[in-house]
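Researcher: Structure for this, please.
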Amino acid sequence: MGVKGERCLKGKRLDRVDASAHRHNYMICTLHISELQKSRKRATPPHPATTTFDDRRKDTVQRTDIGRELLNDSLNAIRLHDPDVDWFNVISHNPFPSPPSFSSAAMSKRGRGGSSGAKFRISLGLPVGAVINCADNTGAKNLYIISVKGIKGRLNRLPAAGVGDMVMATVKKGKPELRKKVHPAVVIRQRKSYRRKDGVFLYFEDNAGVIVNVKGEMKGSAITGPVAKECADLWPRIASNAGSIA
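Model: Predicted structure, token format:
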């Protein structure tokens, strides 16, 4: 029956003789590192109230250099006792790594399909209970707003929606398969006038919305009438099906 080995850093199985030699080398390296640390004479840092910015900067640079020297001495001692082990993959050269950076291109993919970006605050003209026209070709004639997404609210205040807001609505008139169900919808037009950043006040001749899914993709394939610019900037899938943007 063979002797069970132990697993070293490279993942190879060793017999007891080699494993004991590795433990012996590790103990020698540990003693060498502790002796190096004891030999370093670190001055006691002065009180922060009595130091200047330059003194604190010099002390920080000195501590960083001491840390790098200790790391290099430790690596050299380990290489002398065990040259076969690839310690560079185990210990990093830089003891003070920089935080990871994220590219904007990778993070921008999260908003595809749904709402992208933010919109300015406008006048909200469609409270809960409002009935608006359905401007797509799904077969629904109107939409009854029952809630507004993203509204926290306060006591006795009705949640209200404006152009570009997502609401939960039911179909009051339309195909039987769409009625008596709750659908997400996006408001594309409102009769209540609202102000844009350039000072223009804008309003439409009717209140209208389109049925979407939770990802912001339209259930239908066409939109009747114009779509507000605030809604088109926020929902790219709706803008692609819009006949005109006002």
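Researcher: Any notable elements?
Model: The radius of gyration is 34 Å. Residues 187 and 209 are 4 Å apart (CA to CA).
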